[in-house]
Amino acid sequence: MKFYDKYPQLRERSFLTKILTDTVFSTMALEDQKVEKSRVKEIVVSLLQDAELEGKQFFSN
C-alpha cells in the first residue's frame, strides 16, 4: 500500500497546510521559540507553492 493510499487526506491542500502548520508551531513552542502561528502558516504555504512550481505534485486535481 502506498503512502497516499493509506492517508488520502494528505492530498488536500487545506488539510496538509493545517497539519504542517500545527506541527511546526507546536514543536517551536516546545523549544521556547516565540513565532506567531500566522507567520508559520505563511512559511508553510510558501514552501508548498515552491514545491509545486518545481514540479512536485502533492495535491489531486
Task: Tag the structure with descriptive keywords.
64% helix, mainly alpha, 3 helices, globular, 61 residues, single chain
Architecture overview:
This protein has 61 residues and is mostly helical. Helix content is 64%, strand content 0%. It has 3 helices and no strands. It has helices at residues 3-6, 13-30, 37-53. α2 packs across α3. The radius of gyration is 13 Å and the shape is globular. It starts with a helix and ends in an 8-residue tail after the last helix. The model has no long low-confidence stretch (mean pLDDT 88).
Determine the number of helices (DSSP H or I, runs of at least 4 residues). Answer: 3
Radius of gyration equals 13 Å
Overall pLDDT, averaged?
88
Strand residue percentage: under 5%
Helix content class: 55-70%
Q: Which runs of at least 5 residues are low in confidence (pLDDT < 50)?
A: none
What structural class should be given to the helix and strand makeup?
A: mainly alpha
Distance between the termini: 21 Å
**Assembly of the depicted chains:** single chain
Largest sheet: none
| Approximate shape | globular
State the order of secondary-structure elements, H for helix, E for strand.
HHH
